[in-house]
Amino acid sequence: MKCVSHQQASQLLHNKFIVVLGDSIQRAVYKDLVLLLQKDKYLSLKQLKTKGEMSFEEDCLVEGGCISLMHNGTGYREVRQYQSDHHLVRFYFVTRIYSSYMKSILEDFRNGLKPDVLIVNSCVWDISRYNSIWLDAYKENLHTFFSELRGILPEETLMIWNITMPLGERINGGFLVQEIEHKASHLRYDVIDANFFSGTLADAYGMDALDLHFHFRFSLQHRTKDGVHWNALAHRKITSLLLQHFAQAWGVILPCPLKTVELSEITAQQPTNENATKPEGVKRAKRAKRASNNYQNTSNVWDRLQPMGGYHHGHRHGQFRSGYQFRPPHHFDPYYETHHQYVMRNRHARHIYAPYTQHRPSTGQGGHY
């Protein structure tokens, strides 16, 4: 697995403000990013499972969590923030893509510091905890959220919609309260439908979409026993995919040499879902051989980040490029990374500065930290 190192992540995100919005999986995305910005370590099982703690790896709990009442209701709040001399990362726990609480978060963006990167996902709670017939409400909330977001954040902000990861056939989790247990058997199919609508709308509003459902469709062995959450190896892969995408969007060459993963350390503390569906035709011997090849020890050489040309496209900022009938230009072609590169759309031309420089040019927007 190609992993981004601590040094690469630290330089790429130098003087950047990153915001993560979402549920418990997005909280783990935030935690893994915070950990990687400080050291080349993986999240422990306890760190993955704990929520609402006062401090995680030098971050702080700003609101909610253990400061207030801990519960599994839709009104649960948790705001976390990690700040160093050159990095600022913030996390908001949300259970619905658009609500009165989301309005308050958008007001924070409107009146305060504008993020350089916004990573968002909200799906499983939306389609299970609010309405039995969720489709129309979810689509309307997505429209409203994306529309308001485009009016608040500057064009230079890199906005990424994380498409929801695959759910298991048998699931249990904090969101799955007794009143909705009957939905568990078909929720994984609802997620696929919701992913189509959310990904299409994100593309139509000019956001980037990182298809985590696609990337992890054959990595179900990294899903935990509850059928919802994922282990430390999966989250490091998510972090690497995100950082590689940042580098592409900012026109930066990010070399990613293969790194040795201490499997004994990770697997000992990360129990996986033994009942996960295995891809047909894959033999245990082949999986073992592939795992051995993937984690082969190679030299860990750091190459200096080098800027390269940016990306350009022909449509104006804010212009709708597609609807539900939209088909990507390579829709009927085989999947090639040179075509898709983790995203569903062409990238905006952005005014980018080298992320490893000492001084950031003033844009007149946002604040300082």
Protein model, in words:
With 369 residues, this protein is of the alpha/beta class. The protein has a single domain (6-325, 336-340), classed as Rossmann fold (3-Layer(aba) Sandwich). The protein has helices at 6-12, 24-36, 45-49, 100-111, 124-128, 135-152, 187-204, 212-215, 232-249, 263-269, 284-294, 337-340, and strands at residues 16-22, 60-64, 78-83, 87-93, 117-120, 158-163, 208-211, 252-253, 306-307. Strands 2-3-4-1-5-6-7 form a 7-stranded mixed β-sheet, with helices on both faces. The protein has a two-stranded antiparallel ribbon with strand order 8-9. Helix 4 (100-111) packs parallel to helix 6.
Secondary-structure blueprint of this entry?
Blueprint: H1 6-12, E1 16-22, H2 24-36, H3 45-49, E2 60-64, E3 78-83, E4 87-93, H4 100-111, E5 117-120, H5 124-128, H6 135-152, E6 158-163, H7 187-204, E7 208-211, H8 212-215, H9 232-249, E8 252-253, H10 263-269, H11 284-294, E9 306-307, H12 337-340
Parallel strand pairs: 1-4, 1-5, 5-6, 6-7
Antiparallel strand pairs: 2-3, 3-4, 8-9
Helix pairs in contact: 2-9, 4-6, 6-7
Family: Belongs to the PC-esterase family.
Protein name: PC-esterase domain containing protein 1A
Region (Disordered): 269-292
